[in-house]
Specification:
1 helix; globular; 4-stranded mixed β-sheet; mainly beta; 39% strand; Jelly Rolls; 131 residues
Amino acid sequence: MKNLRPEDNLAHAENWEKIASVLVKGDKNRMSLNPEKSEEYNEAIFSSWENAVVLRVLAPKPTKFHIAFATRKGIKYLPQKLETDLKFAVRIGPKDFKVFIIPDDIRKKILFEVVEHTKVSDEKYKDLILL
């Protein structure tokens, strides 16, 4: 094996970009989706999840990004591009999950934060994107 010089060594922390993320704790009292059941069944379960978390994505300059979700079973992302200075809500199911914000240019700095936990029916957030 050939050692790289320290300034070229990928193991050093300064060579790794950071992806903004938040961990959302699940609501253990909610029913789980069941891949063996119909799409209609799972849609009804998903729609029954009343709790949501409101998230905000900010950046010094407008930045396009994708939203990704990670659970123990894998990572999924939305193909739609969104732009920073955006609030959106995510339903909370029974399992913990992580939400990632992936900018078009991974080197761009993005702030990603939890605004508050609320209900899907909260009038204050009636115009937000709900995932």
